[in-house]
Amino acid sequence: MYYGTHFTTPGNTGSAAPLIKEAMARGEIFRAHSFELACAQNEIDHRLTKPRHPWTNGQVERMNRTLKDATVKRYHYDSHDQLRGHLGDFLAAYNFARRLKTLRGLTPYEYSCKIFTSEPQRFRLDPLHQMPGPNTAAPGSLPPAGMPTL
How much is the pTM? Predict the structure, then answer.
């Protein structure tokens, strides 16, 4: 018997993403769960936890609680767009400013850069180029009217 929401085929022991990628490469028509399709399209390795080992979900649950405590439990939002904006601001502050004991005092961004220097094959993008700054803008955004473009 299966409980909860299944994003993959019940009873499946691994991710279907590699099979979906193969079918896409061959141009075949296939059916897939939307979650598995998104993983395949974005080259995400969906790993499953071992049955009867709830502590392996602990890090995810702790981060979910941190996000909820910093957003919906603390503020009222009039719209989902307000929540999305605040969540983006919180995640930027968390990733670039919050030093974590589990990362030996590094921020998540600093830790990613450190791992990138020793194991670059694990990354699709160079994290050194992901730092927000004055020259970054949202995709598709235009400068204000009258502002010169370079």
Answer: 0.57
